[in-house]
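User: For my dataset I need records formatted as: sequence, then structure tokens, nothing else. Please produce one.
Assistant:
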Amino acid sequence: MAVKPAIYFVMGANIGTSVTNTIVSITQLGDRNQFRRAFGGATVHDMFNWLTVIILLPLEVITHYLFHLTDAILAGMKDSTVTREDLDKELLKKLTKPFTSLIVKVDKNVLYDIASGVEIGDDVTLNKRWCKYKTVEVEEEFRNETHVFNITREVKVGIDRCHTLFAKVDWPDTAVGAVLLIASLFILCFCLILIVKLLNSIFRGKLASALKKFINADFPGPLRYLTGYVAIALGAAFTILVQSSSIFTSALTPLVGVGVLSIERMFPLTLGSNIGTTTTAILASLAASSDKLRSTLQVALCHFFFNISGIALFLSHPVYA
């Protein structure tokens, strides 16, 4: 895919990622006031992404400013020395990998081949079933009208299955993905309901009042104008740590629902989250091959400057915010 059409996909992805917040707010339907606050907090992310796309999409179609800006930045770019191993250092992976490795393992070599446009065979799957292989020689016979040819080639054969749940079944990737999707949505909703109940039991009385006053307070004196910018920086920093804006903003939505975090304070945190999430795409782009590195990095930078443009637009005047 070329860079210019990929920019529009990035804009659509920004809209799609905000759906998670809305799902989180639905878990607070049991209390009308909580749901009203939580849904309002969730729509902060929705409205920022929608309004940014509505304004910047026509501008990009007419001027291609994101394409030309990132093209100028990368004009003298040299090949990257970043390796795949450098990109695998994520905070959450250290916590989740011991559990997820018992459920399913993804064959990263197949994943990178697909991303690079390499043709793969029908028998190749993303679900990693074999952890150890051996190489065997296989003789194949080819015939034509006059001759018979015997060709020997080396084939990798699995000898030790991975110790994961889905390595024991020979399901296609589509079936494995569907089961994992349904299971993950069920676990997500169950955990969110527990989180809401836990927050309701913790943030009551004087503790809730004190915490609400502390979180939503502005800096004293003339420094109060810096409060929003500090919140943006914090939102970006926490999102970089968890590698997902959906995770960070979804964690804030129940806090808005129980009344601890105000919608006004969630706004700058959401803006910062939209900046922090762009680092994931930038790091992923650096893993591309040298001939595709410039294009993939340019798309990642378009994502970054798209969010920066939206933030600059809505923070340019208090009325817009």
